[in-house]
Amino acid sequence: MRYLLISMTEIVHQQLSHLSPAADRLGAAFARPKLLAAICVIALAGLGWLSLGLMAPGTSTVGALCRSLTISAWSVTSFAIIAAMWGAMTLAMMLPSAAPMILTYAEIADTAARKGERIVSPFVLAAGYSAVWLGFAAAATLGQFVFTRAAWLDAVMAPANELFSGVIFIAAGAYQFTALKHACLTQCQRPFPFFFTNWASTSRGVFRLGFIQGLYCLGCCWAMMLLMFAVGVMNVIWMAALGVVMTFEKIGSGKRFTYVVGAALIAGGVAFIVSAFAGHWPVHVS
Fold first, then answer.
1. Is 14 part of a structural domain of the chain?
2. What does the alpha-carbon distance between residue 272 and residue 285 come to, in Å, rounded to a whole number?
3. What is this structure's pTM?
4. How many Å from the N-terminal Cα to the C-terminal Cα in the chain?
5. Which domain holds residue 145?
6. I need a surface site. Which of 29, 174, 267, 269 has the fewest CB within 10 A?
7. What is the pLDDT of residues 3-62, one digit of tens each?
8. Structural domain count, the chain
9. Contact present, 215 and 208 (Cβ < 8 Å)
């Protein structure tokens, strides 16, 4: 028995020795913060777009269920499905725009790792960031319930009248010119000073960093996200377009681009309102 145990131990040791180079390479690859950050953004954003594809009305049984729940009276189940839809939407639209922030964290973490310092995975940072937007998704679900009950959204989650769309467009456009918008946008565009000043090496601390960056991002983009109520909650083309605009804002495009977007949104809102009144003009008096 003794010799058998010794032999088995030697066999296991040989197998582990044979696998260790590959395991070391795999471990080294996943110890690189930049690689983890890229995987994090691609995986979570991809999951969001995949979920939206499955939930799109008319494209699947899940989409049909989502539409039928909007038509009928809301229930706990319908709240859960609509909340999941908004959650997927925020992941799909906002995580790509957060890529510069997550990669900045990864750059600093990579430098710290080479010095032998303790670092935390970018997934923890992304979790803190995502927590803020999932909270927004919950609030948007309640908003959709209110708008549906008020008949401002129709059975397929599209705006029921152009006046409603116009007001949202003008409000979102006006927000582009506010001091709060630009203060939050500056933090999103320049995350390095924030990370350098508030660096943390614990999971709780890094989650907090992601959460605070999520709040900055929310302050920057919440009004533009509300445009989905004005163009159709499941309008994939507008999702992609707004995602591109918000990402471009955060890569340091300057105030001029933000002002141009704001002016365009206001002009679009005015066009919606004019169209709404033109549809009832002239008024025929009997």
1. no
2. 25
3. 0.77
4. 107
5. 30-278
6. 29
7. 433 343 343 344 434 444 444 443 444 445 556 656 656 666 666 556 656 655 555 545
8. 1
9. no
